[in-house]
Amino acid sequence: MNNEHQLKVEHITAGYDGRTILKDIELAIPVNKISVILGANACGKSTLLKTIARLLKPSSGKITLDGKGIWTFPSKHLARVLGLLPQSPVVPEGIVVADLVSRGRFPYQGLMKGLSREDHAAVAEALEIMGITNLADRRLDELSGGQKQRVWIAMALAQDTDILLLDEPTTYLDITYQVEILDLLTDLNRKKGTTIVMVLHDINLSARYADYIFALREGCLVSEGTPSEVINEELIKEVYGMNCSVISDPVSGSPFVLPKGRHHVLDSCLA
Amino acid sequence: MSVTLILTAAVLSLCTAIMLLGNTVYSPAAVWKVLTGENIKGATFAVRTLRLPRMLSGLLAGFAFGMAGSTFQTMLRNPLASPDIIGVTAGSNAAAIFLLIMMNLSGTAVSLGAVLGGVLTSAFIYLLSRGGKFEGGRLILIGLGVQAMLNAFISYLLLRAPQHDVPAAYRWLSGSLNGVQLSDIPMLAIIIIIFSPITILLGKHLRILELGENSAVTLGVNTDRTRILLILSAVISIAFATATTGPIAFVSFLSGPISSKLVGAGTQNELPAGLVGAVLVLLADLIGQFAFSTKFPVGVITGILGAPYLIFLLIRMNKTGGAS
């Protein structure tokens, strides 16, 4: 648990092709915690994650790691501290699981050398944490969606970074797999103190699994704090433009959002 | 590793075969004597002037075509993305034909022009497809377009050409080891000795680039620098090879897929692809020389081998909607 890397977003404005998506965002990622970025579609969640991961250069402001701008680090050096699981990673044709996961060791490898004993150990550990040791020799294109996602996370784990960013790691997965992935990430956070930042769509799962929430609306940070501090009817209205009731999740005690649409709402619930 | 050894053995056997076989078959001892400087009537001319340049150019150009093709295909994650399909080779050809026909140049000037044509065409395609963010699919489409344009230009040149220049142009376009002279070899050899180690060393980076731009950046690859180094190495090697033997059809295109089948998907295969390229060229040259009553240039034989595979790939892509 010696992970104390401070990651800060300092007055970031960023976008694509001159179109501004993020507007003057200022935040500090809580160390050793699981943070979730929430917001409606196209509010800039993924853009924020990409900017933090150095995939997108901000037009102004900077991201700092331990006080130094991330663009000043040598790329391999940064890759040993900060990892990202992109939203739809590209699968090379015919690749097997162990091979893919071992590519997560790239930041530690020299130009001439192959995988070291340490690299093999890290790959084996990553496979084990994700519970896919038995899939090591299988081809990726033969696996189910849930299994594939575990392989990608295993690759990010093999990279052995103190900070892990994940862009919608549970999208397209059945509820069983969604919960399983979030449980595995929580294990990782508790065991190794990995700082996790992810974009999630499901507000209620976010409220359960996040220690800390950042809520975005149209590229601006509108609220941050623990789920119980942040998630309430006003915020959901502001961020998603939707009426709702917020109750206490009977399973976890975290806030639970019940949407109110135009139909199927009891008279007693109409505000 | 064993695949590399087997391929190396195959390349060496084919090299030996080319040295021994011909109108007259010489014994290994006689060939060795000639190579070490002894003068044997008849044999000296056949071995030193005809067979040695043929063997060396086939070996080196095949290696360059194979390695460069495989680099492009892996980097752009598409088997269609080989330099002979996306316009790089067409750039060399257009420049060479232009110099041959319009400028009445020959020899080294044409070769250098071909190199320059290949490099400039690649830079042009790369810049056009970059547009803010690098995308492989866009590069391939733009390359196909540029290739079509350049081929039209070549046809125009051939139509305008004086009758007596046309055969030389066609010889250039069909790819052959026939006209190669020993003095053409050192330049190509130096280029390959410089650039193929760069490609092999960056093989590991290439495996990461293959995971897509986002993953590659995240894993600490300097993507633009790596891509430019790999493209430069590939383009320069292939342009010099083309300048020596002409474009030998489909060798770049076939070597990568064959070697990746041999070593297994996902394994570094730049060196094996180079060796497969050499095997293809040398073997096709032997077939062209000896299998039929007429002699065919090597490019005709590789063309016959490659065309069905191209059709197969296009049909498969049509079925899968272009994703591969």
Automatic annotation (TrEMBL), chain A:
A single Gene Ontology biological process assigned to it is: iron ion transport
Keyword Iron applies: yes
A Pfam family per the record: ABC_tran
Q: Which UniProt keywords apply?
A: ATP-binding, Cell membrane, Ion transport, Iron, Iron transport, Membrane, Nucleotide-binding, Transport
Query: Which InterPro entries does the entry link to?
Result: AAA+_ATPase, ABC_transporter-like_ATP-bd, ABC_transporter-like_CS, P-loop_NTPase, Siderophore_ABC-ATPase
One example of the protein's molecular function in GO is: ATP binding
- This protein's GO CC annotations: plasma membrane
Subcellular locations according to the entry: Cell membrane
Topology within the bilayer: Peripheral membrane protein
**Which SMART domains does the record associate with it?**
AAA
Q: Does the keyword Ion transport apply?
A: yes
ABC transporter domain span: 7-243
Under what name is this protein listed? Iron complex transport system ATP-binding protein
What is the taxonomic lineage of the source species? Bacteria, Bacillati, Bacillota, Clostridia, Lachnospirales
TrEMBL record, chain B:
GO MF entry, a single one:
transmembrane transporter activity
Give the way it sits in the membrane: Multi-pass membrane protein
Cell compartment(s), UniProt:
Cell membrane
Checking InterPro entries in the record gives: ABC_BtuC-like, ABC_transptr_permease_BtuC
Q: Where are the transmembrane segments?
A: 53-72, 84-103, 109-127, 139-159, 179-202, 228-251, 271-291, 298-315
Which Gene Ontology BP terms does the record give?
A: siderophore-iron import into cell
The question of whether Transport is a record keyword is answered with yes
UniProt entry keywords in alphabetical sequence: Cell membrane, Membrane, Transmembrane, Transmembrane helix, Transport
Cell membrane recorded as keyword: yes
GO cellular component, alphabetical, reads: plasma membrane
Family recorded in the similarity comment: Belongs to the binding-protein-dependent transport system permease family. FecCD subfamily.
Give the protein's recorded name.
Iron complex transport system permease protein
Q: Give the species.
A: Muricomes intestini
